[in-house]
Structure to design on (491 residues):
């Protein structure tokens, strides 16, 4: 995918979010630190252009809710910022890549600390497969079959597939 | 295994890492459910051989917000009264299964001694050893200054009062100077350590002289028991020369902060009125204490085998003679 493809995918996902929720009433976008944050902002921008209203955008760092704490070093990247009460909201979690699903599991737990959303939906730019948990995305930029050891890099300039460089 | 024994083991980067993580945990404390499952299944034991209310409660709150399990060992209600030695007590607690021991003891060096006995099987956190060190207090104090002023670089911090008997002063001096601040100790000669060799500080006996140059006036508790030791003539005389009174506050710069580790003796080292001024961040220190201790416990217990602080070798520091 190149930069135009990413832009078109965001545009399409924005239309899907509006269609599925019959507008943007009580929709809140929550970008996962750090890869989902820029994407959440881009999606909010597209929603604003289509619908005329820009939904609130928050960010969430899920590190404290991960299931591999103590197994490998995990440190929070950025401070979580949820600007609105999530009770009764429709939360659209936004991340760049969906892989094992463990980050999303942690995010679902983390959201509980901010209230009880009416619904939680998931938007990702790339679904690369290899799920280890029963989790599926609601909005997908691109389904990209990968090997487990490949790396996927998502940026506004496009999506790249690379090998893990072993040092 | 990771310990937090002394601020001297921490580099500037280490302290800044704790501060950054403290930002994260400060946000956790503001959530409607201020609790994360990060340390589920970890067991933290308080080993308090000396009285403490705020430090113990603060650590306890920190551990609970991280979902760790906690047990308290306090000397008053224990087999220590039956004559059990410190070493046997520690080994007994270890055998029950513990991931971190938070230790407070009236004798300097005890946390190092315990760390040596346990050979790295348990993380040790120094919560105050004698007149020696109180590292988490220094981390929360420097965090509070950073929160208010952005950075400690170039700040002039006055530590005022009973420096001699203060573990807070020792840890604070190390943390503040490591972070680029200048420190001046302000105390009568009887309340200063016998030797200040190696301390990166300036010393004065005249509070009024330094007040206008301070960015932070850090007051230490004037302990009543010092009176019986005849280190100061009277509390009134101490207050007259070293107390932060309303009149003295006016000599401070407009944005200078007033800090105190607690518990305060209002009317002695700080006047009742000054403690409640907006520039006094004493309550912020307490609030930041919980987030700081969450950061410390998370760094020590949440990182698997990764090394966080200092080196693997435990070197017991040379302790200065500070006989009464």
């Amino acid at each position: 995918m190149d930069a135009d493809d990413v832009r078109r995918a965001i545009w399409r996902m924005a239309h899907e979010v509006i269609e599925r929720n019959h507008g943007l009433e009580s929709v809140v976008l929550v970008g996962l630190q750090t890869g989902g944050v820029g994407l959440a902002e881009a999606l909010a921008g597209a929603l604003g252009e289509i619908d005329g209203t820009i939904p609130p955008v928050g960010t969430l760092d899920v590190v404290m809710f991960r299931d591999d704490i103590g197994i490998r070093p995990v440190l929070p990247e950025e401070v979580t910022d949820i600007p609105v009460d999530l009770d009764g909201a429709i939360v659209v979690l936004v991340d760049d890549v969906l892989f094992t699903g463990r980050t999303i599991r942690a995010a679902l737990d983390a959201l509980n600390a901010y209230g009880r959303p009416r619904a939680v939906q998931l938007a990702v730019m790339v679904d690369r497969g290899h799920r280890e948990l029963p989790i599926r995305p609601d909005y997908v930029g691109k389904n990209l079959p990968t090997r487990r050891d490949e790396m996927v890099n998502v940026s506004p300039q496009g999506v790249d597939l690379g090998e893990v460089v072993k040092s | 295994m990771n310990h937090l024994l002394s601020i001297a083991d921490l580099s500037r980067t280490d302290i800044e890492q704790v501060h950054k993580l403290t930002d994260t945990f400060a946000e956790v404390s503001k959530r409607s459910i201020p609790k994360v499952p990060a340390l589920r299944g970890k067991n933290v034991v308080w080993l308090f051989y000396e009285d403490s209310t705020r430090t113990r409660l603060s650590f306890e709150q920190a551990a609970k917000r991280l979902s760790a399990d906690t047990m308290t060992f306090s000397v008053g209600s224990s087999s220590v009264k039956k004559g059990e030695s410190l070493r046997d007590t520690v080994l007994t607690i270890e055998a029950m299964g513990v991931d971190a021991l938070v230790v407070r003891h009236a004798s300097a060096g005890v946390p190092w001694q315990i760390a040596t006995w346990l050979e790295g099987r348990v993380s040790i956190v120094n919560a105050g050893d004698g007149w020696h060190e109180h590292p988490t207090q220094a981390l929360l104090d420097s965090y509070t200054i950073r929160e208010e002023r952005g950075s400690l670089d170039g700040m002039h911090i006055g530590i005022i009062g009973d420096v001699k008997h203060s573990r807070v002063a020792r840890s604070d001096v190390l943390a503040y100077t490591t972070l680029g601040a200048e420190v001046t100790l302000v105390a009568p000669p009887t309340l200063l350590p016998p030797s200040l060799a190696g301390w990166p500080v300036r010393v004065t006996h005249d509070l009024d002289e330094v007040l206008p140059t301070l960015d932070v006036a850090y007051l230490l508790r004037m302990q009543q028991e010092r009176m019986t030791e005849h280190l100061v003539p009277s509390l009134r005389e101490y207050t007259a020369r070293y107390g932060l009174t309303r009149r003295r506050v006016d000599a401070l710069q407009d944005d200078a902060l007033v800090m105190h580790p607690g518990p305060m003796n209002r009317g002695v080292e700080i006047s009742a009125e000054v403690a409640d001024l907006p520039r006094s961040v004493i309550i912020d220190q307490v609030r930041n204490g919980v987030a700081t201790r969450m950061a410390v416990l998370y760094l020590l217990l949440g990182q698997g085998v990764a090394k966080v602080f200092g080196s693997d070798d435990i070197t017991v520091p040379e302790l200065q003679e500070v006989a009464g």
Remarks:
- Residues 3-146+155-161 of chain A form a domain with the Rossmann fold fold (CATH 3.40.50.2020).
- The first strand of chain A starts at residue 27 and ends at 32.
- The CA atoms of residues 62 and 105 of chain A lie 9 Å apart.
